[in-house]
Amino acid sequence: MIKINLLPYHDKAKKENISRQISIVAGSFVVFILLLIYAQIQLTSKVSNLASQVKERESTLADLNKKISDLEKYKADKNQYEKKLEVIERLEVNRLAPVKTLDDLAALVPSKNIWITKISQQGSNFRIEGVGRDNIVVADFMKIIETFEPIKSVDLISSKKTEISGITLQIFNFSCVLKKGF
């Protein structure tokens, strides 16, 4: 005879299999959620660390920019002081140049025949006014001045005879052009 088992043992096994699958899926889902939470915490920690590093580096950059601006100011001040020192050195070198030029010019004047009454300078033009014994002495003095180092050229502006204390003398006026650098 044929025996028929009417008990649903297959259904019971299927139900157990489904409940096992549901618990595996639920466990996997819980593990997945826990992994996501862990990843979120790690990312948040890294972001906060990076943000603090950015703030720290920005403050360092601000300090360095301040130091750079101070350095640029120092360089500008240094250049300005160097230019001032160059001007002072040039002035110191050229301080005695006019005195030396006038001293050398005075050495060229024949003391018994020529008397200088006025010397003036405007830019590179130099004027010499004076009195001489006669035209020959004045002409010789003009030639001497032409050989003087700072003088580029000499022109006679005027020459007149005049009588001073009963002596006939020659009043002269020279216009000179100075060489560059004098």
Please provide a written account of the structure.
The mean pLDDT is 88. The N and C termini lie far apart (147 Å). The protein has helices at 9-94, 97-108, 135-146, and strands at residues 114-122, 125-132, 151-164, 167-178. The chain has a 4-stranded antiparallel beta sheet with strand order 1-2-4-3. The chain has 2 domains: 32-95; 110-178, Gyrase A, domain 2 (2-Layer Sandwich), CATH 3.30.1360. A hairpin with a 2-residue loop joins strand 3 (151-164) and strand 4. It has 3 helices and 4 strands; from the N terminus they run ααββαββ. It is an alpha+beta fold.
Number of domains in the coordinates? 2
Q: What is the name of the CATH architecture of the largest domain? A: 2-Layer Sandwich
Radius of gyration over all CA atoms, rounded: 54 Å
User: Which sheet architecture does the biggest sheet show?
Assistant: 4 strands, antiparallel
Shape: rod-shaped
Order of helices and strands: HHEEHEE
Strand order of the largest sheet: 1-2-4-3
Share of helix among residues?
55-70%
Give me the secondary-structure category.
Answer: alpha+beta
Separate helix tally: 3
Q: Unreliable segments (pLDDT under 50, ≥5 consecutive)?
A: none
- In the CATH hierarchy, what is the class of the largest domain? Alpha Beta
